[in-house]
Task: inverse folding
């Protein structure tokens, strides 16, 4: 965990220790812990690194991979942890609610939720109300919040009105019919279903073989990937400026991936993703509509989406109370956008 990686312009992974904020070739060195393992979910950051957008801002950014045993909301909260962390909003709010973190949202990257639940078309579960009596798969660690909140809004209690199973990060339990419903992300596990061969036909499964619940439509969607930094770190002299320059490079990377998705897939593949190019192409294609359009400017927090996420979490008992106004800072993203006057940061097209 004390080692980060930078892709670099040549596409090579280079190890370095994080948190030193030391200069190398006149660059300020910082570290970022990612939500998950290398994949196109983070393409904008990989592009910012590989194409020199952070270098333009005087920064060298090292990556720490996330994964099933790495929790960015925890890693980023450590006093000597990485300067920046990508994490879902409710996960960070939960550790803040417990008094264990001073992480601040400085850039809301995903404007829409990517969480789905999938079931077989021949055993359909088309709404949270239909969880009753079923076996519902979810991931732990905060991934389950939208699913459980939807069930509770439908008057159902997990492990009372329906059984819950902690899923692996594959779709095997659904494919093997060990569970009736599986949690899936639009950009990853749903694609895994469609990349699987139906043994009865010898052909790939098709969308019509499954029934999908979209939590954006249900009304319990919560904001996901956002850039966070510790309030205590930001308060130190010069660090707000570093954060602004970090965001500017990241925003430019995401804009580049919007306009050059195929190139960003290749950049992501070099970063070490374990799933194939075809899967990364799917992911890049699906990630872009999660972040674009950004009508208030890239990295901006939509007040209505934020209020809905917080209220859903409070109503479902995931938070004891709504967070204070100090969780969201919009000024740093605004300053970052001002550095990129010639870059389209709304993506209206």
Result:
């Amino acid at each position: 965990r004390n080692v980060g990686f930078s892709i670099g312009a040549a596409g090579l992974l280079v190890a370095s220790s994080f948190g030193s904020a030391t200069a190398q070739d006149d660059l300020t060195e910082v570290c970022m812990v990612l939500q998950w393992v290398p994949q196109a979910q983070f393409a904008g950051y990989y592009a910012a690194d590989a194409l020199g957008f952070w270098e333009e801002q005087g920064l060298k950014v090292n990556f720490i991979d996330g994964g099933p045993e790495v929790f960015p909301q925890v890693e980023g909260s450590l006093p000597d942890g990485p300067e920046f962390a990508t994490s879902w909003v409710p996960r960070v709010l939960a550790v803040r609610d417990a008094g264990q973190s001073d992480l601040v949202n400085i850039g809301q990257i995903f404007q829409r939720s990517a969480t789905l639940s999938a079931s077989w078309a021949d055993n359909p579960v088309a709404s949270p109300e239909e969880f009753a009596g079923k076996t519902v798969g979810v991931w732990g660690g905060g991934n389950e919040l939208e699913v459980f909140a939807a069930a509770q809004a439908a008057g159902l209690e997990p492990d009372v009105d329906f059984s819950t199973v902690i899923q692996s990060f594959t779709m095997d339990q659904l494919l093997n019919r060990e569970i009736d419903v599986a949690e899936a992300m639009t950009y990853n596990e749903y694609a895994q279903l469609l990349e699987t061969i139906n043994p009865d036909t010898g052909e790939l499964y098709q969308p019509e073989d499954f029934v999908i619940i979209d939590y954006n439509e249900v009304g319990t969607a919560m904001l996901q990937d956002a850039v966070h930094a510790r309030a205590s770190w930001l308060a130190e002299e010069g660090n707000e400026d570093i954060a602004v320059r970090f965001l500017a490079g990241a925003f430019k990377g995401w804009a580049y991936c919007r306009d050059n998705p195929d190139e960003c897939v290749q950049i992501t593949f070099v970063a070490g993703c374990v799933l194939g190019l075809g899967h990364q192409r799917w992911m890049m294609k699906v990630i872009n509509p999660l972040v674009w359009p950004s009508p208030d400017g890239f990295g901006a927090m939509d007040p209505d989406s934020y209020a809905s996420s917080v209220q859903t979490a409070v109503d479902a008992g995931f938070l004891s109370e709504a967070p204070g106004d100090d969780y969201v800072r919009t000024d740093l993203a605004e300053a970052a956008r001002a550095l990129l006057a010639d870059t389209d940061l709304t993506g209206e097209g």
Notes: Residues 1-23 have pLDDT under 50 and may be disordered. DSSP finds 14 helices and 13 strands in the chain. The first strand starts at residue 3 and ends at 6.
